[in-house]
Amino acid sequence: MQETAARAGWRGVIEEYRRFLPVSEQTPVITMLEGGTPLIEAPRLSERVGARVWLKFEGLNPTCSFKDRGMTMAISKALERKAPAVICASTGNTSASAAAYAGRAGMTCAVLVPEGKIALGKMAQALAYGARVLEIRGNFDRALEIVRELGEKAGLEIVNSINPFRIQGQKTGAFEIVDVLGDAPDIHCIPVGNAGNITAYWKGYREYLEAGISTHTPRMLGFQAEGAAPLVHGHPIENPSTVATAIRIGNPASWKGAEEAISASSGAVNIVTDEEILAAQSLLATSEGVYCEPASAASVSGLLKFGVPEGSKVVCILTGHGLKDPDITIKSVPKPPVVDADYAAVCSALGL
Ligand code: F0G
After folding, report:
1. Residue 1 confidence (pLDDT) above 50
2. How far apart are alpha carbons 77 and 159 in whole angstroms?
3. Distance CA 288, CA 314 (A)
4. Pairing mode, strands 85-89 and 157-158
5. Which of 44, 164, 212, 245 has the most crowded CB, counting CB atoms within 10 A?
C-alpha cells in the first residue's frame, strides 16, 4: 500500500516506478511530479450500480490530464537522444502536456490541432506553455497522418502515443491503482479515443501480475462516443463527431492494442451517447464532488449504462479535469439569475 507515499514525497512516475521503465542513469528526467493521483471512492455511484466504485482522478496531474504520465517519459527520452524539437497531433490534452514538458526541457514544441474542435482550456494551455500551435482544417486523424509524415521526412520527434515511451509512462496508472487497492480491481472502465491509454493500462496490469504484485488482471471495459466509435463498429469513421472533443477520433492509432486488451481480459468496448456522457459528468460533479471533462465521463456513463456484477470492485479512469472545457458546462446548465445587491433580493431569489 503506497497511499501515504502518494501524498508525501512523491517523486513523479519515473522515479517511483524506475525498475519497470526503460530509463537509465543517463536519462535526464523531465518531471513535474506527475502521477500519484487520488483514487477516490464514489459512494453514491457505488450505491447506484451495486458495486464498489473508485475514481482515478487524472485531472489532478500537472497539466490536468493523464497525458503527463506518458509525456514525462517521451520528453525525457527525446532529451536523452538530444532531439531538438517535438511534434504531436492532438484533440487538446496531448498538446497541453507536450508543450509544458518540452518547454521545461528547453525544446521546441509544435502541435497540430483540429480547427475549432479543441476545448478552451487546452488551447490556452498550449499557447501559455509556448508551443507553436497550428490549427488545421481537418480532424485529429488527418493531423496525425501529417505528424507521421513530419516524423519520417523532417526527423521531428513524435510524442503522440505511437511513441512507445508514452505507453510506458502511462502504464504507471495501473501500478498506482494496484498499490492503493492492494490488488487489481475486478473491472476497469476507461474512455477510448486513440486507444493508447487502454493499451497502456493493460500493459501495466499485466506487468504487475507477472511481477507477482497482483493476483489477477481486471476486465477492461472501454467506452467510445456514439459518433466516434470505430472500435465498436469495426471500421474507421470518416467524420467522427461528439461533444467529448478529446475522443473525437475515427481511426485510433493503437487499434490493435485496444483489441488485445479487450479480448485478453474478457472485456468489451461499447457505445455511450453524448447525452449519457454529459449526464454522467453532471452526476459526478453534483454527487461525488469530482468535476471531470466530458470524455472522462464516458467511463462512468458506460458503467451506469451497462452495469457490472454485484459487489465488483470497479475503477473508472477520469482522464482530464472539468476546467479544461468550461464552455460545455456553461452551455448545458441554466444561466444563474442576476439580482440586486441587497439582502431582501438575495433572500427572495433563494426562496427564503
Ligand atoms: N480522455 C481524454 C481527456 C483525452 O484527452 C483522451 C485523448 C482520451 C480520453 C482518450 O485516450 O486516446 O489514449 O484512447 N486525448 C488525445 C489528445 C487524443 O490528443 O489529447 P486515448
Report:
1. no
2. 10
3. 16
4. parallel
5. 245
